[in-house]
Design brief:
Helix content is 40%, strand content 18%. By secondary structure, it is an alpha/beta fold. It has one domain (7-289): Divalent-metal-dependent TIM barrel enzymes (TIM Barrel, Alpha-Beta Barrel). The longest helix is centred in the last third of the chain and has 24 residues, at 256-279.
């Protein structure tokens, strides 16, 4: 696999792209993550900004609409445009979600798929096809879900592991999604992590979430990251070593200076976890992570 950045990055969002283009994040980010759907079939300022930014930061590509869980064939026009974009804006891999987001019409959300062997086999084949079409490795991301999925043949860690093995692909591990699901569905997030093939993890996402009511958490990407999610990120880095870690913020986006403050806080936890990985020591209590 091609070389890739490690450390803490941000996603390019319209609310902060002008400031990043102006150099206000120089030296503060290890990479930026770009969603090509925000640029396909567009021209003008957005692409000009991206061209300047990619000269200063490594890019990682992350998709929103590949519909890996879909039943219909891939959209040939979309894949042709996406490959052209990635060829012009090189990234070491491309990632998208283990979800259904289109079934003849856009759902405007990332819906979970049934945890069955036939679904795993079908999605793995689609991942291999996507990788072949794009001529680069694929990563898949675990998603949050809010309703039980009915009859299943396996649980989520087994389902994910089955797909990764059959597709021979990497995992973009979203620890916030894992935490949200654990709280909403009543399982131990660390027991969940222990069953994920960490050797296939290539990137991490962390984000904030919000409470819908007293019992349900919603993955809004619209709040600061909680300490529990920091700790899960650290747990993974202690076992994998250096990886790119994206701080996701899509709603209630604060000024860039405030976001960069959270990047620094996240990097402190990341660096401490990396130090423990290098020393081969085990996890430490949450209060130690934050002094």
């Amino acid at each position: 696999m091609d070389s890739h950045p490690t450390g803490i990055g941000l996603g390019l969002r319209s609310a902060i792209i002008a400031e990043i283009d102006a150099g206000e994040a120089d030296g503060a980010l290890a990479f930026v993550e770009v969603s090509p759907e925000n640029y396909l079939w567009r021209g003008g300022l957005a692409l000009d900004q991206l061209a300047r930014i990619r000269e200063r930061f490594p890019l990682l590509g992350h998709g929103l609409t590949m519909n890996l869980g879909g039943l219909g064939p891939f959209d040939d026009r979309f894949f042709a445009e996406l490959k052209d974009f990635l060829d012009r804006h090189p990234t070491p891999w491309y990632s998208d979600h283990l979800c259904l987001c289109n079934n003849g019409a856009e759902f405007h959300d990332l819906l979970p798929v049934p945890f069955t062997r036939s679904t795993a086999k079908r999605i793995a084949a689609r991942i291999r096809e996507a990788s072949d079409r794009l001529e680069r490795p694929m990563l898949v991301e675990n998603v949050s879900y809010y309703l039980a999925l009915g009859e299943v043949e396996m649980d989520e860690p087994e389902f994910i592991a089955e797909i990764l093995e059959q597709a021979d692909c990497g995992l973009l591990l979203d620890v916030n999604n894992a935490f949200v699901n654990a709280q909403n569905h009543g399982f131990d997030p660390y027991a969940w992590l222990e069953r994920i093939p960490l050797e296939r993890v290539r990137q991490l996402h962390v984000a904030g979430h919000e409470s819908w009511d007293e019992q349900t958490l919603i993955d809004t990407h619209g709040a600061d990251v909680r300490d529990e999610v920091y700790a899960m990120m650290a747990w993974v880095i202690e076992r994998t070593g250096p990886l790119p870690v994206l701080l996701e913020r899509d709603n209630h986006i604060p000024p860039l200076a405030e976001l960069l403050g959270e990047v620094r806080k996240l990097d402190e936890v990341y660096q401490q976890a990396l130090g423990r990985w290098r020393r081969g020591t085990g996890a430490v209590p949450l209060e130690v992570l934050h002094g």
